[in-house]
């Protein structure tokens, strides 16, 4: 009779942890649900309470340590473009999205949607939104640009 009680207990713990995960989407309770399923299987196999609890703890901690970082990393990267560091945008073409005044910063879109604060490397006129530019270098997180029209006319 006691063995059946542990089976029911582990099933309830697994169900509550899984339901809690569905409500919070924290990818934390999911691993306790997995541990509870391991405890449930151990109870069904006839192991004692100590072995069931040890299996629950080991399975929960091991899956959290191994699977949670991989799961979070996979979800973080699935919906976005990879970040291109400052050295990777040098030489690329961009489009001005916020006007760049002489001596001040504006905003450019490099490639398919990576936005950078930008300023012109050489003093010149205002760069209007929609103007095409080339990234010559970076200064921290600011792209140093020059207008492409000046280059195409040469």
Task: Explain briefly what this protein structure is.
With 154 residues, the protein is α+β, with helices and mostly antiparallel strands. Helix content is 51%, strand content 21%.
Write up what this structure looks like.
This protein is an alpha+beta fold and 154 residues long. It has helices spanning 2-24, 29-44, 49-78, 86-89, 148-152; strands at 93-98, 106-110, 114-120, 132-139, 142-147. A five-stranded mixed barrel has the order 1-2-3-5-4. It is rod-shaped, with a radius of gyration of 28 Å.
Q: Keywords, please?
A:
154 residues, alpha+beta, OB fold (Dihydrolipoamide Acetyltransferase, E2P), five-stranded mixed barrel, 5 helices, 21% strand, rod-shaped
